[in-house]
Structure formats: structure tokens, C-alpha cells
Amino acid sequence: MADRTPLQAFLSDDEGTTAVEYCVMLAMILLAIIVGLTAAGNGVLDWWTEIDTELQSNGF
């Protein structure tokens, strides 16, 4: 069997595939966390605005 060139060895190496898959999964998880926290933050802001409005209208 003939020796492989460095390019052939690089192209046939699949060691980095798992790392790429983990990076993609991590990116998806982080995106879900960011979207969730943004939605929760907006909900809390709306809730706090309602409380502030009620307190101000009652003289507090």
C-alpha cells in the first residue's frame, strides 16, 4: 500500500468530527438559553412595570 500524502491523511481523518458536533450542540443550547432568558426578562419587565404603575397611582 502506497504512503498517503499529508493532504489525503488530513481529509480522511475523522477525529475532529466529534468536536465539531459538540460545538454545534453547545451553540444550539446556548441559543435556547439566550432566547429563554430574553423572553423571561421581558415578562419580568412587564410585570414590574405593572406593579410600579399601581404603586404610583395609589400614592406610593
Plain-language structure description:
- It is a single chain.
- This protein has helices at residues 6-12, 15-57.
- The protein starts with 5 loop residues before the first helix and ends with a helix.
- The protein has 60 residues and is mainly alpha-helical.
- The mean pLDDT is 88.
- It has 2 helices and no strands.
- The chain is rod-shaped and about 90 Å long.
Summarize the model shown.
This protein is an all-alpha fold. It has two helices and no strands.
Look at the structure and give the mean pLDDT.
88
Total number of β-strand segments?
A: 0
Spans where pLDDT lies below 50 across 5 or more residues: none
Order of helices and strands: HH
The fraction of residues assigned to DSSP E strands is under 5%
Question: End-to-end distance, in Å?
Answer: 86 Å
Number of helices: 2
Radius of gyration in whole Å, from Cα?
A: 26 Å
What's the main sheet like? none
Secondary structure category: mainly alpha
Helix content bin: over 70%
Anisotropy-based shape: rod-shaped
